[in-house]
Design brief:
Blueprint lengths: L1 E4 L2 E2 L8 H6 L10 E4 L8 E4 L8 E2 H7 L1 H5 L10 E8 L6 E2 L3 H13 L19 E5 L3 E7 L2 H22 L10 H21 L5 H16 L9 H11 L2 H6 L1 H10 L7 H4 L3 E6 L4 E4 L5 E13 L5 E2 L9 H7 L13 E4 L2 E4 L7 E7 L13 E7 L1 E6 L2 E5 L4 E4 L6 E7 L7 E7 L2
Length: 440
Amino acid sequence: MYLLRAPLRDYAWGSATLLAELQGRIPTGRPEAELWMGAHPGAPAGAVPAGTPQAGEVPLHELLAADPERLLGEASGFGRLPYLVKLLAAGRPLSIQAHPTLDQARAGFAAEEAAGVPASAPQRNYKDDNHKPEMVVALTPFAALCGFRSAADAGTSFARLAAVLAENTALAEGPGNNAGRAAPADTSAAVVAGYAERLLGASDGGGDSDAESAAIESVFCDLLDPSGNWTSGTWVAAAVAALAQAPRVLDEDLNLATAVGIAEHYPEDPGVLVSVLLHRVDLAPGQAIHLPAGNVHAYLYGLGVEVMASSDNVLRGGLTPKHVDIPELREVVAFESVPVPYCIPVSDRAGHLVFRPPFEEFQVERLDLPAAEGSTLTARGPVIAVCTAGRVRVASGADSAELSPGESVFLAADDPAATVHGLGSINNSDPATLFAVTLP
């Protein structure tokens, strides 16, 4: 068993407080976005033998490469530790994004390698040759955009926006006002009304999913068209300004209210309007969603345990200053209306929940102590376990490790079965929680 030293990623969207509050330390004052617990070469965790914690750390991917059969067991068939575990702390919205399938990732990575695109180049789409199905379990109230709404629902929201823009134009053109200043809202009102008509018309097609998908794709791509009207920011600003003057509409339409909230961080980004196409999801602590390839999504705020196949491949579609490749994104995105992909856990004993998303790389176990006191971790292949509340002791054979929130361990495939014991908090009264990730 190895103690993990998880590197902290300081992306600009990171919260300045959530990880510090979890770990019971003073905030640094800088954004703290993610703790990476895994072997991805982009930011591998350092591994230290639990029996000799004073020893120097070794990057986990180097440790695994030295003896993959013993350390990874059947997971060695993936050619790597198949999953990456993170504590994700979003203080503001992440980019709207989607991830490729395995075949798309392999082809895209090979093409960029053959073209000699440097791995660190900002225009690089594929950092590795793996796909990135993922899931997140909320530790605090957690908000996200996740998957396309029905064409009917999205069309209704765009119709409301068009009406608000039209009303805003009429008011601006009233007596004593300068009609010229209403031009952005006037023109964009007609365009937005066209989106509404397109989406609502597709939804009236007797359940024609192809027609709905085509309508969703056309609106999505029009909003993000780099040569289109939305990318200048003027139309986005006009839409947000009009909505801000229509509180009744915002009360009636969560997606439009979400767009206005996103605009506080990205005031002229067309992704503000793309969000209207997507489900707004609010997770209570303990709830989870899973995100397959092609699902367009963005986390808005909150702290969670995020697990994914070991990859850093992201195709972005707004709410970001980073590279946006619309043709490649269009190839990756699944333009279909889908229900919110909640991941509902199952329980086989007290204090023990198992989240099983439809992915072959991982499952996630949650153990709540003291109810799960003395429980044995599922150990099919390697395990990464991270404490998120209280204090926990993980024991495997002669090794043991005491974990506080944010601390984690790696258990090799050939380690003895590990048991979990709660140590409470400093006053020995608080419950404890451990998340463990292993093969399904």
